[in-house]
Amino acid sequence: xxxxxxxxxxxxxxxxxxxxxxxxxxxxxxxxxxxxxxxxxxxxxxxxxxxxxxxxxxxxxxxxxxxxxxxxxxxxxxxxxxxxxxxxxxxxxxxxxxxxxxxxxxxxxxxxxxxxxxxxxxxxxxxxxxxxxxxxxxxxxxxxxxxxxxxxxxxxxxxxxxxxxxxxxxxxxxxxxxxxxxxxxxxxxxxxxxxxxxxxxxxxxxxxxxxxxxxxxxxxxxxxxxxxxxxxxxxxxxxxxxxxxxxxxxxxxxxxxxxxxxxxxxxxxxxxxxxxxxxxxxxxxxxxxxxxxxxxxxxxxxxxxxxxxxxxxxxxxxxxxxxxxxxxxxxxxxxxxxxxxxxxxxxxxxxxxxxxxxxxxxxxxxxxxxxxxxxxxxxxxxxxxxxxxxxxxxxxxxxxxxxxxxxxxxxxxxxxxxxxxxxxxxxxxxxxxxxxxxxxxxxxxxxxxxxxxxxxxxxxxxxxxxxxxxxxxxxxxxxxxxxxxxxxxxxxxxxx
Length: 496
Fold this sequence. Notes:
Elements: E1 4-8, E2 13-19, E3 22-28, E4 31-35, E5 39-45, E6 49-58, E7 64-75, H1 78-84, E8 89-90, E9 95-96, H2 100-120, H3 125-130, H4 132-145, E10 154-166, H5 168-255, E11 296-297, E12 300-301, E13 308-313, H6 317-325, H7 328-337, H8 343-362, E14 368-373, E15 386-391, H9 394-401, E16 409-414, E17 427-428, H10 432-440, E18 444-452, E19 460-464, E20 481-484, E21 487-494
Parallel strand pairs: 13-14, 13-15, 15-16, 16-17, 16-19
Antiparallel strand pairs: 1-4, 2-3, 2-5, 6-7, 7-10, 8-9, 11-12, 18-19, 18-21, 20-21
């Protein structure tokens, strides 16, 4: 009204009232009336302000870097600022009438930029990149000590270089070096892990080898003990046979009359063979020959008394694998990596164990029994009164027959009829009890199976009579050997 206006300054503003070319009032937190037409009002903010900057510099090894930062300043001497820059405001809009206040920020940044090269040029690229904070502190100290901002009435409160980065190509090179170092450390870690794994595998293999060596030593001890026992048994049986032979010779000498004469060219037939050569007797002699293995009754042969039962078994496929690989897991690993399934070996082992347990349960309690593996046959001595029982395929029967004396029978059982289709093994394991009892009491018959071979042994396989016991004991015929076309043919007694 009437051209009179009212003005009130803020606490952070330095105000100067100029009227008629003279300063009427100045200071902070002022309020007054003024005539618009003849009054100028100068307002200088004295609060702190922030300014961001970006500029490029060159390091001591001629590498360009880009420096980004932020500074904080405050006008501490407004009168000097007013002398250098125009801070007159429009009271109605409370805005400065010129661009000078904005130039103040640029001048401060230029002062900082002028001092920065002195600190950067003396350092290498790596030092500048790694020491941005210390460089900014040094620049602030230099700007303050040299009073570069004093003419403007400004105080530099803080200066921070937030980022110092090289050009993209150099940055990639530096990153590549660090990246390669990281990859190198990663490779070293991988190699260390692999080395540790190889070392652990070596320890495992060493333990496995030690286990195999220990197992082999124990197996060697077992073989030596079994061989020693077999030698002792064979020696005992040999001594017994010698005593029996000596006894028979003495009985025959005392039972035959001294005046007996022999008929030339003739000999009395003996109902049973006592040895490979038949003894020649006198025609007038009334004393019948004595038999060591088979007793004589009415011209027929009856079975001898069995001393023990020898059961011959074979190693299954799984047992052979375990001898080689020690554990089930290693055997399974080997077969599966060879493309062979492991389950048939386990099924065969279960069937064999079940058949062997049933056969053991069927053995009579009053007769001694001995179990041997087929691999021990070359070193095992069978006794003349051993009832030989096999549990395995036809090949086992033929193999056992090679080590038996002529005329010794074999009782063969099929361990698994579902997988073993035998010809010489007509008995199932479920029939073992009845079959063994029938053979022990002499109620059996024999069947001869002729096998052609360059060299073979003669044996007998016996089976219980399929008829009742009232039929009587069948004739126990000795094995015969014939030749056809010059090739030997050996008779093998198989189960009927």
